[in-house]
Amino acid sequence: MTESKKINSAPRIMIVDDESDILSVIKRGLESKNDFKVETFSKGDDAINNFQNHPPKYYDLVITDIRMPKVNGFELYRRIKENDPTMKIAFITAFEINKEEFSKVIPSVNVTHFISKPVSISKLREKIKSILEDNNTEA
Predict the structure, then answer these.
(1) CATH of residue 81
(2) Is position 87 within any domain?
(3) Of the candidates 99, 73, 59, 55, which has an alpha carbon nearest to the alpha carbon of residue 17?
(4) What pTM value is reported for the model?
(5) Do residues 92 and 115 lie in contact, with contact meaning Cβ atoms separated by under 8 Å?
(6) DSSP 3-state helix, strand, coil percentages of the chain (rounded to 5)?
(7) 6 located within any domain
(8) In a domain? residue 4
(9) What digits encode the pLDDT tens for the residues 5-64?
């Protein structure tokens, strides 16, 4: 928590997905109980620019789709980690993930932070809280 955040303020989450309908549903669902502040981006490069234009620790968590045009989730992960190695990042995807193959591509990723689509808002909320409570920064 930084000085720019108020004590006990809702965690700020960046969500990146090229499907705007999914972004709308997730944002509305997560903000409905005022327990999260959500900022959404449909393009990876817009998300990176936004991330870089904020002070460190502005976001508590980044959730990104893997398959997106131009800047995919892997590239987004790499670029965000270059800016903030401690940023927690989770992948959300509709595709089955082979953890062994994924570990070869990005060995430092904690594969417990995959979220499968479709996901209910209640399950997503639980997963986010679990990730935020996890002290492992290799999310």
Answers:
(1) 3.40.50.2300
(2) yes
(3) 73
(4) 0.85
(5) yes
(6) 40, 15, 45
(7) no
(8) no
(9) 445 689 999 999 999 999 999 999 999 999 999 999 999 999 999 999 999 899 999 999
